[in-house]
What does this fold into?
Amino acid sequence: MSGKERLPVRGAQGDLLRLVATGRAESRAELARLSGLAASSVSLRVEELIGAGLLVEEGAGTSRGGRRPRRLRVSPTAGLLAVADLGAHHARLGLLDLSGTPLVVEERPCDIALGPEETLDWMAASFDEMLLAHGPPGVPLRGVGTGIPGPVDPASGRVVSPSRMPGWNNFPVAEHLGAHYDLPVLVENDANLLAVGEARAWPGCDNLMVLKAGSGIGCGVIVDGRLHRGRGAAGDISHVRVRTDSSVVCSCGHPDCLEAYASGAALMSALTEQGIVMRRPADVVAAVNDGVPEATALVRNAGRLIGEVLTVLVNFLNPDAIVVGGSLSTAEPLISSIRAAVYERCLPLATRDLEISVTRAGPDAALLGAGSLLLDAALLDAVPA
Ligand SMILES: [Zn+2]
It folds into this structure.
């Protein structure tokens, strides 16, 4: 079983380690250029990081003519991060190295409706099992993080007024996990994690809106290359009022929220009411792919409503791309109706060169996002070497 240790990193060492871990630098010269530190100062700190077992130097880096530079990377034995992405009925769990490369990823069924204590204790037990089975001996655990399918207060790590998560309102998730693990803990909204993980797959796009269309509906916002949290609820579009002919009261008590029409949960219950039984959002996608007309009509309507909400946001924020992830993202009519609404209604200057596309980072995007934010938390929490 792996031990638990804080990272032995201080001052500028942390910034250099982060540049190597995120793949932005692999040589001393690149570190000097990106950090603004003098070459001698970079060399000294790199030697310290190598001495502490956090960086290794190997082979030849990318040749740019002349002498081949040696290549720096994070040592595979520098530490592990245990990360999860909790969904309504299943969780994705992973062990990553400090550069975010997964050692193992597993999807396991779970039920967040059982409440926070049971769910989080199950998650901790799953991490323990995975560490035992896959954690290399002697490599310490450096942090634990999870995505939550609801709003999270970034200051306290509490869940605030989530939908379909009975017992979770105001529960101190970070404190509960912190009692299990005397380590840096990250608790973040799932769409925010998705946005951070996805951003690495969009180099050159500094402003992104990343929609998560699953059981719920959420959005993470990247501004100038960084996650924009606002006061915690930035990007939460689930309770924006939409224009419809009917009227449905949302779980929040207000009429006609986007979530009441366009979330996977809403689509599943609308189809079940029409006699087509649905158990998870993936069943909605399967029905669309099978050409079930009721499913296609509802998904197309969901895309139109999401697109209408996004038109306001696209005009306001002018992102480089809108990326759609989550289990509904593979339903083609969803993306095409979002595209139609945004291109029809947005300002030409806002939609010129705007990409609207499905996720590039794949099913582990949220775990990669968790790893990236957790490394930041571990560096902040580092003990002086
Ligand atoms: Zn609502």
About this structure: The two ends are 24 Å apart (CA to CA). DSSP finds 13 helices and 14 strands in the chain. The first strand starts at residue 55 and ends at 60. The longest helix spans residues 293-317.
